[in-house]
Amino acid sequence: MAELTYRDAVTRGIAQEMERDPCVVFLGEDVAAAGGVFKSTVGLLEQFGPIRVRDTPISEQAILGAAMGAAMTGLKPIAEIMFSDFFAVCFDYIANEFSKSRYMSNGQVKCPLVVRTGNGAGSRFGAQHSQSVENWAMMIPGLKVVAPSTPRDVIGLMAAAVRDPDPVIFFEHKSLYPTKGEVPDGEIVDRLGTAKVVRPGRDATILALALMVPRALEAAETLKAQHGIDCEVIDVRSLVPLDTQTILGSVGRTHRLFTVEENPRLCGWGAELVSIVADEAFYDLDGPPVRITTPHIPLPAADILEDAVLPTPARIADRVRQSLNS
Amino acid sequence: MAKIEDRAGTRPSPGLNDDIGEETRLRLYRVQFEIRESEQRAYDLFLQNLVKGTSHLSLGQEAVAAGFAVAMQPGDLSFCTYRGHAHTLARGVPVEKVLGELMQRDNGLMRGKGGSMHLTSVEHGVMGSYAIIGAHLPIACGAAWRAQFRGDDDVTVCFFGDGTTNIGAFHEALNFAVVWKLPVIFVCENNLYMEYTPIGSVTAVEHPAAGRAAAYGLDSIIVDGQDADEVYRTALKAYDKARSGGGPSLIECKTYRYSGHSRADPAKYRPEGELDKWKQRDPIVIYRERLKQFGVSESVIGGIEADVRREIDEATENCKAAPPPPLEIMTTDVYADGGWAWRN
Question: CB under 8 Å to B156, separation ≥6 — which residues?
Fold first, then answer.
């Protein structure tokens, strides 16, 4: 057991899979010689060499297209798109190409690849380098979508993503890179499609993802200490496949549902989860489900504004308390 | 495979046994004729409402598809566009499989799940037909990267139209392929019109592909796309370069489509007489004449044609008799487990 940063866990997760499988290759902008702009891939070039770890031009379409072509002919590429906001310049591959080729070809074409990307706010980068765009990926049939919140989950879900036969979009939260967590020694392999109850509780279920997980946990501790409200916090981890059983089971015990989403309001993943619970567990609910999101606005750059936009532990706790007391 | 340069020295005066040879020439003719007849049949079936959706025909462009495909080795990969029937047939995919897909029958290449614009036959090296302009150029780079990475000796050939040369992915792919020195051949079929608009009126250079080659350190290569021999020779040279580690090529084929862009387009934007002028350089007519000049008998040529016609007639009847795809396949192969489950 060792303490590792989320950033170093990315490197370890990729290295674990590259050591295991010689078909795993890694490409992206500044990922090799520079070790990544977030320093999350330092040392991979030295360890695996320039044939398997490759710097690319600033050509996001070429990065994802090349990853797809390599995947469909036998390699297992991990492609980095530096900021998830840049999905918008290569979205054809995500929305139209590797997500649909298996279906359109009636199963002939296979695209086992991983797209990893820096997602989320907190760096004061403004509206084009701070978004949480996991919903852009979640809405497309044929993709799998994960967003780990801890160093251990980074390694385990990276392994699961690389070993998965389908294209997986892997959202790393930029504000989590410096955070630390305990990581067991040896190989770590997790499973896609599994949510995790990270804090059991009786009074309400809080669903969160990535950076919102530690914030929801902090809110839960405050609610318990100051108001005696005992919240169950679930790290959703995997949007596709979605572990609805863990979520429905929790709502069946707590009878209240909250989602904490970093994304703007409309069409967030929380809306989908609320709709599933409304469809299948309506009579388990003792009150209306509540979505805690950013307002439906672009993200501002100034720290005071960005901090006011994102759900904070205080805002989460207030919203839960108000709702339970009403 | 011998290099073109090696053969040039021993090439006899024009005759069937020159650098191309009789067997290859008969193959080139058969492939062109099969494309011509199949595309014409697809059009006829469309008029009977038996081909549904859309279709983009290659009538007039047969020599490009035949020349590049016949020069390939088994294992070489083709990436095509929505105008991909010709390239798919040229790799040896049975006509029935192609017509079946166009007719949305269960015997189609993808059992009706892809349609005319997405013909794919991995077992024949047809790695897909891509309907988003330019998307497949980077994907072809990736396939070629795999060959380079593993030391495989196959080449990847990527076909696209003149309109593609003005989209970003074209330029990203060319730069990427050159920088990584990938064994990929980019083939522009310049048929003069992007969709309705003449390519020359929206492009900064006279030759939309070849005119951009220098920007990527590539040779400017222009070939007469109506002459299958010239296409074949150019293809061999580019494949040889790619196989020997020389990196990518960009080849612009001057050609012409006889029909509109798609089934919805009567092509009224063309100046009067342009189509007739191009038909005087019809690739099938040119090649048939050449075979005769080289002494191939009318009965041999007629035998090929009768054989192809019989094959297409049979395919048509089989497709007409084939059932539509069963509803059960609607949700298959979304994910690798064969199904579409996104939740537990």
Answer: A69, B76, B77, B79, B140, B141, B143, B144, B147, B182, B183, B184, B185
Calculate how close chain B gets to A62, using CA atoms only, in Å: 5
Q: Which residues pair with A133 in a beta bridge?
A: none
Contacts of B222 (CB under 8 A, 6+ apart): B207, B210, B251, B252, B253, B254
B/e letters for A101-116, b = 16+ CB within 10 Å, e = fewer, are bbbbbbbbbbbbbbbb
Report the top-level CATH class of A2-183: alpha beta
CATH number at residue B156: 3.40.50.970
Which residues of A fall within a CB distance of 8 Å from B142? 65-73, 77
Pair B191, B61: CB distance under 8 Å:
yes
What number does CATH give the domain A196-325? 3.40.50.920
Which part of chain A has CATH 3.40.50.920? 196-325
pLDDT of residue B265: 85
| pLDDT tens digits along B75-120 | 999 999 999 999 999 999 999 999 999 999 999 999 999 999 999 9
pLDDT band at B343; cut points 50, 70, 90: very high
Q: What is the mean pLDDT of residues A50-79?
A: 98
Q: Report CA-CA distances (Å) from B203 to B95, B162, B211, B262.
A: 36, 10, 10, 22
pLDDT in tens, A139-197: 999 999 999 999 999 999 999 999 999 999 999 999 999 999 999 999 999 999 999 99
pLDDT in tens, B172-208: 999 999 999 999 999 999 999 999 999 999 999 999 9
Q: State yes or no: pLDDT of B304 exceeds 70.
A: yes
Q: CB B113 to CB A77 under 8 A?
A: no
- For residue B161, being part of any structural domain is answered with yes
Residues 191 through 210 of chain A touching chain B, CB cutoff 8 Å: 193
A129 counts as catalytic = yes
- Chain B CB within 8 Å of residue A275 CB: no
Mean pLDDT of B306-314: 98
B109 vs A contacts (CB less than 8 Å)? 106
Residues B319 and B313: their CA atoms lie apart, in Å, by: 10
User: Which residues of chain B neighbour A240 with C-beta distances below 8 Å?
Assistant: 342
ipTM: 0.97
- Picking from B253, B135, B238, the residue whose alpha carbon sits closest to that of residue B189 is B253
Question: Which among B114, B142, B333 has the least Cβ separation from residue A68?
Answer: B142
**If you measure CA to CA, which chain B residue comes closest to A244?**
B344
Q: Left if phi > 0, otherwise alpha if psi is -120 to 50, otherwise beta: which for B131? A: alpha
Nearest CA in chain A to B330: A103
Percentage of the residues of chain B whose pLDDT score is greater than 90: 90
Give the range of the structural domain holding residue B53, as residue numbers without chain letter.
Answer: 22-331
